[in-house]
From TrEMBL:
This is Peptidase. PANTHER family: PROTEIN ECSC. The lineage of its organism: Bacteria, Pseudomonadati, Pseudomonadota, Alphaproteobacteria, Hyphomicrobiales.
């Protein structure tokens, strides 16, 4: 079963090579590692131990409801931020600065518990979005374009943990394919209306789709913060893993989009899938420049 990835950016007119340079191929390999083998649960389990994975099976219904509502609210706030203010100048050393700020919000959340999640999550999500936008800009994206702003938000849905599909392709392209239509419709709506109304059906479908995937990762974050470790210090550590996770996904996502603009979506997807399918890294042959 094929997946529609029509939201991929078409390359500009000009030279289009049928073979990637060695440098671009190496960048694509790095993107595959980030997008196919990055998991917040793995990061948290390494940091806090197996109890995080075990706790994932025991999420209270009330806690799950709080997490889902907080994730949806965070996406609404992020949508406004993405479409209204991401075109401002990047912050120097933004990755480090945003990590410090998100860690600080995690410290507050760790001290106050689940009651703070509806407040802490939109704050940390907004900070992560700014960091994602700076990563996108570094990979040649025009942050002033609605489609690019939505691509920044899309990063929050790219964790493939728990994805059940019949797709015979990478998790990353499967997720992009599932969201392709909603991304296209949302971008078209914003471009044509020139306004931000999160209740518009096109935008609501997109934010709901992203929030449903984002909520899975937020649940992992919540469980880790609820694990009896070091209180506020533990909350800061969890949020640091949280932002590093999405920064890594963003880097991989925007590397792929940059290469799609240069080589075309079909070539990049085919080579990405070949790399992702290789069990042994030694099987991956980098083409000559």
């Amino acid at each position: 079963m094929s997946v529609d990835t029509s939201e991929a950016v078409e390359p500009p007119q000009g030279r289009r090579s049928g073979v990637m340079s060695a440098g671009d191929h190496a960048a694509l390999m790095e993107a595959v590692r980030r997008l196919e083998h990055t998991s917040l649960m793995v990061r948290l389990a390494a940091m806090l131990g197996r109890q995080v994975s075990f706790a994932a099976q025991l999420v209270p219904v009330r806690a799950a409801q709080v997490v889902n509502k907080a994730a949806a609210a965070a996406m609404r706030v992020a949508l406004h931020a993405a479409l209204a203010s991401l075109s401002s100048a990047p912050i120097r050393n933004s990755a480090r600065i945003h990590r410090v700020m998100v860690a600080a919000s995690g410290a507050a959340g760790g001290a106050l518990g689940i009651a703070s999640l509806p407040i802490e999550l939109p704050v940390s999500t907004g900070l992560m979005l700014r960091s994602i936008a700076d990563i996108a800009r570094a990979e040649g994206e025009d942050i002033g374009q609605p489609e690019t702003a939505l691509a920044c938000l899309q990063v929050f849905a790219l964790d493939g943990r728990g994805l059940e599909t019949e797709f015979s392709e990478s998790t990353y392209f499967a997720l992009r394919g599932l969201m392709a239509r909603s991304v296209t419709e949302a971008a078209r709506y914003v471009a044509s209306r020139g306004l931000i109304d999160e209740t518009a059906p096109a935008l609501l479908r997109f934010t709901t789709q992203v929030a449903s995937r984002f909520g899975v990762v937020v649940s992992q974050k919540f469980l880790a913060q609820a694990t009896p470790v070091l209180g506020a210090l533990g909350g800061a550590a969890v949020n640091l893993a949280f932002i590093e996770h999405f920064q890594s996904l963003a880097k991989g996502h925007f590397i792929v989009r940059r290469l799609e603009r240069k080589y075309g979506a079909d070539l990049v997807k085919a080579e990405y899938s070949r790399i992702a399918a290789a069990r042994d890294p030694d099987e991956i042959v980098t083409p000559a420049a």
